[in-house]
Amino acid sequence: MKKQLATSLLALSISTQVWAGQDNPCADLSDIQKMADCITFLQTKIQKQAAQIEALQKRFNRYEIVEGSFTWHEAKADAEKRGGHLATITSEAEWLIIKNIFGDALNQYRIWLGATDEETEGEWRWVTGEAWDYTRWVGGEPNNSGKKEHYLHILIDLDGQWNDLLVSDPFTKAYLLEK
After folding, report:
1. CATH number of 63-178
2. What is the pLDDT along the chain (179 residues), one digit of tens a residue?
3. Are residues 110 and 171 in contact, defined by beta-carbon separation less than 8 angstroms?
4. Which of 7, 75, 78, 157 is the most buried (most CB within 10 A)?
5. If you ran DSSP here, which 8-state letter would residue 137 be given?
């Protein structure tokens, strides 16, 4: 599904470049009527693209910040009860979408994500089984402090960088749900 989003966004980008092709009344702006035709043409194109973007957002806007005092395991179970899972961020493109959706809300408190190395220390795995190819670790992390940090969360005010954490943390007040 994430690859479909990237492909769709690429198609939108390419379509904007094609506006300058044939049948574009904006190629000749020598009089008022041609300028008016160009404006109408561009308005139509923009409306079509806005509709395409809105459809993509509805299709791929499947993230929600769920507030509450959860351990990582409680957050995982709650996400599954809601028909989703703890979010997996598997690419920079996906991170940018999440950042664009939530903005400053991501900096309000620590937020659980759907990865752990509880089975084998240092072998991080997404709860969905997706490939572990992308990370946003803050410098020096993961460090498994006290040999008990096995759960992924987003740090406060560090542009969405990650840290490993204990299963229970009084400052982690939400999780990111992905459906």
Report:
1. 3.10.100.10
2. 555 554 454 444 444 444 555 577 877 778 888 888 888 888 888 888 877 777 666 666 689 999 999 999 999 999 999 999 999 999 998 898 899 888 888 988 899 999 999 999 999 999 999 999 999 999 999 999 999 999 999 998 888 999 999 999 999 999 999 99
3. yes
4. 75
5. B
